[in-house]
Amino acid sequence: MRGRTDPQAKMLFGVTAEDFVPANHPIRRVRALVDALLEALSPELTAMYSSRGCYSVPPEHLIKGTLLMALYSIRSERQFCERLQYDLLFKWFLGLNITDAAFDHSTFSKNRKRILEGGLAEGLLGEVVREARRRHLVSEDHFSADGTLFQAWASQKSVRPREEEQPPRGGAGGGRNAEVDFHGQQRKNDTHVSTTDPEARLARKGNGKEAKLSFAGHLLMENRNGLIVDVLVTEATGTAEREAALVMLDRRDLPGGRATLGADRGYDTKAFVEALRQRDVTPHVAQNNTNRRSAIDGRTTRHAGYAVSLRIRKRIEECFGWMKTVGGGGKLRYIGRAKNQLWATFTAIAFNLTRMANLEAQAA
Question: What's the predicted TM-score (pTM) here?
Answer without folding.
Answer: 0.91
